[in-house]
Amino acid sequence: MAMIEVNGATFTYPGNKTPALRDVSFEVQVGTWLAIVGHNGSGKSTLARLIDGLLPLGTGTITVDGLPVTVANLTAIHQRVAFVFQNPDNQFVGTTVADDVAFGLENQRLDRNEMQARVNQALKEVNMLEFADREPAQLSGGQKQRVALAGALALHPQVLIVDEATAMLDPEGKDQIMKLLTRLHNEGKLTILSITHDTREAALADQMIMIDGGQLVANGDPKKLLADKKLMEDHQLTPTFLVALKDELASQGVTGLDDVTTEDEMVTWIWQKLNSTK
Ligand SMILES: Nc1ncnc2c1ncn2[C@@H]1O[C@H](COP(=O)(O)OP(=O)(O)OP(=O)(O)O)[C@@H](O)[C@H]1O
Ligand SMILES: [Mg+2]
After folding, report:
1. Closest Cα to residue 215, out of 31, 47, 29, 30?
2. Domain ranges, residue 49
3. What is the pTM for the complete model shown?
4. CA 82 from chain center: how many Å?
5. So what's the pLDDT on residue 168?
6. Ligand 2 mean position to 276 CA, how many Å?
7. What's the whole-number mean pLDDT along residues 14-23?
8. What CATH number does residue 86 fall under?
């Protein structure tokens, strides 16, 4: 079943001549992890805001869980979709980290204990429980990003949209978020839309769409699309380390790499090669 259906979505910011998004169509099935990639200014955040009803669609239609994204349905849409924004500074409202995570829950009429439990659980998931009583302003960029993610998770959404969640993190922080997304994804029904410049993160997704100049230029299996050198170059995207390494080895005449599709498989492959040449 489709969780999100986007049909001919077009949107122009007031005062702009050219649309930020032009005739974009795709579907995301329930439980799918979709990566949205594209270079700066291609329209990724605009697309995410349209799906969450934060911007009014020009032409076309978008549905979430079968509901058209319209002003009349906004409450219902926001019960289903949680959004982690690109710049976490714009979304802090609480005086402490825990308050902040609780804030989004206030409309949900939960009792105090349930609310507390959800806040703690969400902070634990992003490894920030020990910061519960801190002021958000005292946190590093990466910590803010994780608290913002906790705020979204506490809502128990059906759809989680994360806009560049790992952009401000160091490699270790990045790995933590990627592991968290992977775990949430493996647990079941959550549909994840992650906007990312990080092709390694995109490689973890089930489906990938690529946007350039507001238009959808590719939609398919991330591993296939990321390995398409021409497509990546044409749209100014950096290949993954794995794809670059495979390319380099192929250009040196090394064969037998066709079945290697992950970094782990590459490690195994190299290991076997080394052992067989002993
Ligand atoms: N509030 C706004 N008002 C006017 N134009 C905007 C606004 N926000 C974005 N744009 C324009 O719309 C286009 C798409 O922007 P958008 O933020 O969706 O891109 P993006 O792919 O998310 O980029 P980035 O990777 O830098 O976050 C750009 O040309 C941008 O300048
Ligand atoms: Mg953006």
Report:
1. 47
2. 2-222
3. 0.89
4. 11
5. 72
6. 47
7. 96
8. 3.40.50.300
The verdict on residue 246 lying in a domain is no
- 226, 55 contact by CB (below 8 A): no
Atom of ligand 1 nearest to the CA of 15: 4
Ligand 1 centroid, distance to 20 Cα (angstroms): 7
Looking at beta carbons, which pairs linking 201-206 to residues 24 or more positions away fall under 8 Å? 201/35, 201/166, 201/174, 202/35, 202/37, 202/226, 203/240, 203/242, 203/262, 204/33, 204/35, 204/178, 205/33, 205/34, 205/35, 206/32, 206/33, 206/34
For residue 265, being part of any structural domain is answered with no
Per residue in 180-227, pLDDT (tens digit) is: 889 889 987 899 999 988 888 899 999 999 999 999 999 999 989 998
20 lines ligand 1 (CB under 6 A): yes
In terms of pLDDT, which residue wins out, 277 or 151? 151
Q: Is residue 269 part of a domain?
A: no
| Ligand 2 centroid to residue 62 C-alpha, Å | 19
Which ligand lies nearest to the CA atom of residue 44 in the structure? 1
CA of 44 relative to ligand 2 center, distance in Å: 6
Question: How many structural domains does the chain have?
Answer: 1
268 lies in a domain?
A: no
With the most atoms of ligand 1 within 8 angstroms of its CB, the residue from 11, 12, 16, 54 to mutate is 16
Does residue 240 have a pLDDT over 90?
Answer: no
Does the beta carbon of 44 lie inside 6 Å of ligand 1? yes
